[in-house]
Amino acid sequence: MKRLLAAAVCLGTLLLGGTAPVSAQDAGEKITRTWAMAEFGEPLYGPDMRHWPYANPDAPKGGSIVLGAFGSFDSLNTYILRGSWPSGIGLISDSLMTGSGDELSSAYGLIAETAEYPEDKSWIIFNLRPEARWQDGQPITADDFKFAFDTIKEHGRPFLQSFYEDVSGVEVLDPRRLKFSFKTRNSMKPLLTVSSSSPLPRHWWTAQGRDITKTTLEPILGSGAYRIRTVDAGRSITYERVADYWAADLPINRGLNNIDQIRYDYYLDDTVLAEAFMSGRIDFRQENRAQRWNQSYDVPAVRDGSMIKRVVPDQTPRGTQGYIFNLRRPQFQDVRVREAITLLYDFEAIQRTLLFGEYKRVKSWFPNSEFGASGPPDTLELSILEKYRDKVRPQVLTKAYEPPVTDGSGNIRANLRESLRLFREAGWELKNNRLVNAAGEQMRIEVLLVSPALVRLTEPFVQNARRSGIAASIRVVDTSQYQVRIDDFDYDLLSVALNFFPPPGAEQRSYFGSAAAETRGSGNLAGIKDPVVDGLIEELIAARDLETLAATNRALDRVLSWGWYQIPQWYNDESWLVYWNKFGYPETMAKYTIGFPTTWWVDTGKQASVRSPG
């Protein structure tokens, strides 16, 4: 599901990273010149950093691994709306600046050796490293970034375009100097956003009539530590480490990109994919099913150490996971209908019978983070919401949002009664076991899924919906159809996990803004059109300190939650890792990532002793 919003691959949207800025007077204007930036405060790491603390600079290079991926892919062009692209495609691209795994909003120079910006932050200039080059040996130039920007503005996915909404212009000052100008002032957010821009090789795309507006399976020329070696359309893709990668010795890359070859094999069935791992055809797996985690790994390979089963705490801020209502469908436009349907979802029974009690309930659009609301609104949140007092539901200002609960027995009689009461208020009556409106039309909902594994987790909800008189059904489609139906907003209820790019910024317009509601391919899956939501988004974009930004986003979270735009599901604050014991990894892990495969390496000594069935 994460491929839904994977447009961020092209941006390198993890805005992470550190520095000690230098100031100078240029024509009376105070200019900051630096190798690293932070949105709030100072970057964690200074210019004397020799390598990330979670990377081993002496890690051996070599080896090959096979990873598993679900579904299929039909394009390597990640910029345009059409097509589904493969896992790992971000391995081939570098960006102006990059981030650390220990921070959420700072950036360190990669292709850009330094950056400079004025006190009012109305523009930023990136000075490119002279040694930066494409994998064909051609230098990376400022024009390649201009080409990428123009491509995004003219042909890019709407969600990808949303990251650049504050950019008023891009100028090539010379082959190694690139300038972005901004509509906003006195905010570091736009500077950090554009710092994650990746270039497009104009010389490669314009050669031999290649069309950037079309899908392609021709291996794309890259600038990163890996190149595409082979493509088996829809079935597998292989990346190989670039032996003479231009940035290998930069401090930010020491100890990274250690594995010579990484192949992703695709499976149309999640169960078959899991079995491929158990049989040794896949080397590493991040498990996402509680049933398998609890029942499938009590095997000899784990007991004798050939396979490692490991739990890692996960502090990464999350986007929501749930069944999203499509308000473009007339039956969902009444908030009472959305609340009534949510009452039919028995999370406690699913947690007890199918999830092994392993998950936490989603109670926010931004779980596992300081940007998500919890408890009643605090003083700062109330001050932000006060101007909207007459435009929001009263609960927004007084109560903590809590999704409906049950006793977990599977009997939802009390919730069903409340649900039918809300349906009646909204003009729907239960007649002859059919929930109908004044015209006698039965309410119908179809839940769109991309993975057959989700059917068993959705069936209890569908059964409860049928008990209330709704003609409810499940539709499972392949990844290509799923992407097209999402882009076209062709669904009633959509089971999805959203990505979140903290701290939040202009991309929230694409997720929740009214202007994005009818824009094909945008992130506004629910079709939300609410002037209060629009106003709060603009306030958080304008926030100049982290405390105000976080409080504004929590206020936004409350408005969204009490709008009943989703049926919240669950999330995990742990990462469940299983892998064949052929890897080495640094003793210190990054705060926000497990680092696989970037900081890991193949341990040939361990690999030789692994008793893999494969």
How is the secondary structure organized here?
Blueprint: H1 8-11, E1 22-26, E2 29-34, E3 36-38, E4 64-70, E5 97-98, E6 106-109, E7 112-118, E8 123-128, H2 142-155, H3 158-162, E9 167-174, E10 177-182, H4 189-195, H5 202-205, E11 226-232, E12 236-241, E13 261-267, H6 270-278, E14 284-287, H7 290-295, H8 300-303, E15 307-313, E16 321-325, H9 335-342, H10 347-353, E17 360-361, H11 379-385, H12 395-398, H13 413-425, E18 429-431, E19 434-436, E20 444-449, H14 455-467, E21 471-476, H15 479-487, E22 493-497, H16 507-512, H17 531-542, H18 546-562, E23 566-568, E24 570-571, E25 574-580, E26 583-584, E27 601-602, H19 604-609
Parallel strand pairs: 4-13, 20-21, 20-22
Antiparallel strand pairs: 1-2, 2-7, 3-6, 5-6, 7-8, 8-10, 9-10, 11-12, 12-13, 14-25, 15-25, 16-22, 16-23, 17-24, 18-19, 26-27
Helix pairs in contact: 9-13, 11-18, 17-18
What does the main sheet amount to? 6 strands, antiparallel
Number of helices: 19
Globular, elongated, flat, extended or rod-shaped: what is the shape? Answer: globular
Mean pLDDT, all residues: 93
Question: In what order do the strands lie side by side in the largest sheet?
Answer: 1-2-7-8-10-9
The computed structural class is alpha+beta
> Could you list the spans in which at least 5 consecutive residues all have pLDDT below 50?
1-25
Features:
614 residues, alpha+beta, 5-stranded mixed beta sheet, 19 helices, 25% helix, disordered N terminus
